[in-house]
Amino acid sequence: MEQLPSAKPYLLRGMVQWIEDNGFTPQVLVDATQAGVLVPPEHVQAGKIVLNISVQATHRLEITNDQVSFSARFGGVARDIWVPMPAVLAVYARENGQGMTFPPEDGAPPPQPEPEAPPPDRPRLRVIK
Fold first, then answer.
1. By C-alpha distance, which of 107, 109, 101 is closest to 12?
2. Which of 25, 92, 110, 118 is packed most tightly, with the most Cβ within 10 A?
3. CATH H-level superfamily of 8-95
4. d(CA 86, CA 5)
């Protein structure tokens, strides 16, 4: 039996169209640590970056079966962006958070949330009788 190609690019294109058709701003969450990702490193936080992929924010947006690419301005500077499809973790509307996350491809482990630092020790008030 022949293995089907990933459904992710088809779902991504459909979700972007659905988000824009409803007047919202499509954004993608990207794993910036994956090989081949070309994004402004100064905007990466905890290995991830959120990119606005709306028609108004991008130039030459292409969502192919293999990658997402476009040009956009970051701090007034035009940058070329290239994201391999496996690095796309989610797509959602900026205004209401509706969208979808994507399972890891090719048996890659799912992204793990960053562990939260324990709260610092604080002085505590006690009632002494």
1. 101
2. 92
3. SspB-like (2.30.30.220)
4. 12
**What tens digit of pLDDT does each residue of 80-122 get?**
999 999 999 999 999 999 999 998 765 455 555 555 555 566 6
Q: Rounded distance, CA 27 to CA 50, Å?
A: 6
In angstroms, the CA 18 to CA 35 distance is 29
Is a pLDDT exceeding 90 seen at residue 2? no
User: Token digits for 127?
Assistant: 């009632």
Closest of 34, 16, 11, 38 to residue 87, by C-alpha:
34
Cα(77)–Cα(6) distance, integer angstroms = 34
| Domain positions in the chain | 8-95
Report how far residue 56's alpha carbon sits from residue 120's, in angstroms, rounded to the nearest whole number: 43
